[in-house]
Amino acid sequence: MTSIALLIEGFPDKSAAKTAISLIRYRSADVVALIDSTRAGLHANEVLGVGGNVPIYASLDDTPVADTLMLGTAPSGGRLPANWRTCICAALRRGMTVISGLHDRLADDPEFSQLAQQHQAEIHDIRHSKCTHLATRKGLRPECLRIHAVGHDCNVGKMVAMLEIEAVLKQRQRDAQFVATGQTGIMITGSGIAVDCVVADFVNGAAEQLVLDHQEHEILLIEGQGSILSPMYSAVTCGLLHGCVPHGLILCYQVGRTKFRHTHTPIPPLRVFYDLYESITSSLSPCKIIGIAVNGRDCSTQEGAAICSALTHEFQVPAVDVYRDGAEKLADAVEQLENEYFSMDKNVC
Amino acid sequence: MTSIALLIEGFPDKSAAKTAISLIRYRSADVVALIDSTRAGLHANEVLGVGGNVPIYASLDDTPVADTLMLGTAPSGGRLPANWRTCICAALRRGMTVISGLHDRLADDPEFSQLAQQHQAEIHDIRHSKCTHLATRKGLRPECLRIHAVGHDCNVGKMVAMLEIEAVLKQRQRDAQFVATGQTGIMITGSGIAVDCVVADFVNGAAEQLVLDHQEHEILLIEGQGSILSPMYSAVTCGLLHGCVPHGLILCYQVGRTKFRHTHTPIPPLRVFYDLYESITSSLSPCKIIGIAVNGRDCSTQEGAAICSALTHEFQVPAVDVYRDGAEKLADAVEQLENEYFSMDKNVC
Hints:
By secondary structure, chain A is an alpha/beta fold. Chain A has twelve helices and twelve strands.
């Protein structure tokens, strides 16, 4: 059992604390403390809206036993904020494992690497991958169903949709496995590759490597990144999409998102994405969209329900808000696709 | 004026000497010698099929004055062959500039870096880019027409098509500029970014950076890479496609290519690519395919002509083999697109 202290020192707003919020939500049993000198004495729920009574401490010295320090917010540019150094050094002196998703490599820092060596502490820079596998579409296990999350933009709930579907399938005693492709997903599951930091030639290969590494399971739920039309990040999305050779896609959609994140470029209608995702995958191997995960965080329950209903009608696949409605219908769609493929014809890969 | 010695030591076949062949073809005035101890005494034309009487020497010692050594073949895996070391060291001792497109960084090699320092020689590892620009679609000059080459696979003639169109446009006194996105193109033009070695998050940004760096010209002819359906490399293709924000595309097609290079995956019909390239670009900004560059190296002149005619008929855009027919019709299509966009409406970017 891992016990995690989450460093969230001075995060400006909830959107910057996405990693911390997801860790509290999906590793609630493991997160024992938050560290933020500006909010010491408060509880997780009061500042993040999740996490109940998990206490916030001013420093690691005040924190009860924890064996792992995770950096729980994403500072602008991915650089190490100067005021995090004290806490990271303290963790290494205690021999704790430090897990970072920063662009800056902690292991390259002389002070950190020396402390880690002295105190047998481990540093995991999960935003750095040396993957040099080239995708060949060889060795894929035909009995493993591969489901992949795609979206109309970054940060619309692709990871959450897949984790919620995984939970439902596990409740049904299915051997389903979420496969992480980004830093938060890796912190939640303890494995994966942050594909956005792989060298361009090997993005497709990194996705294939993840499939090869996990395909002993019956069902893989492969996290998506970005958007196939993202002006900034479509390279990552396209490489993932082809590299993981999906049988089915969950299309993720945030109500009210009109421009691609961090840009002034308008997002096309969902129909454009629906058709494009299906054609760009199924031109190489059989694949279709099996459901829509609607993120209604910026709309009322009533409005969200109306949108889900309209999307279900328009696209003829289940459209649900996994937080409000649960992921049962999407899990049903996964199992239905599995039946379609594998009871009729095993010769699909 | 640069005088280039091209190292082609022991290349196994012509497809491995693609860089050398293109350099001889497009920098014929600059290439003064080839170096290959296994073929000394022969001439370029005898072993590469191009380059006329350019002599092949056994070593750099036998070679007359040259100020630049370029590594002209791509060994499998991009690693430095052991038998190239002597020649590279000799070049550095002469104070020559050494230009390498290998994955191995020559500048990281202690022997090479020490020699370079001692003899004021320069090492350019062009397959390594530190580009960290994120694409924002801001600052694009509306008066610059951006044409991009795409294809159904790698290595089907995208670079050649753009270089031939550039030559025709320059003959017409147009301010057209080829923009290199791969190692051979960079060696030919002396600038560019090898986008396949950029970190995934910055592929779109690297393409945008190239546009920003060159958009003082009237017409940019931006080299393409891979294929939007390449199982191995689609990440690179997609990032380039969105990052360079093209107004028009030249679709490159090699007759007889049935499987994606280095894979067993069948290549879909050209119609699939045609529709996909148009939809994935025009969903963000106006863009269309304006011509097809047919590579007929594996078919007869007669067969090639029949295929060009059939493609022209099917897609209603000019389809030509630029080697056999010249690039005039494709250059016409570029100028016609320019007229369509800019005489009617300058407010397109």
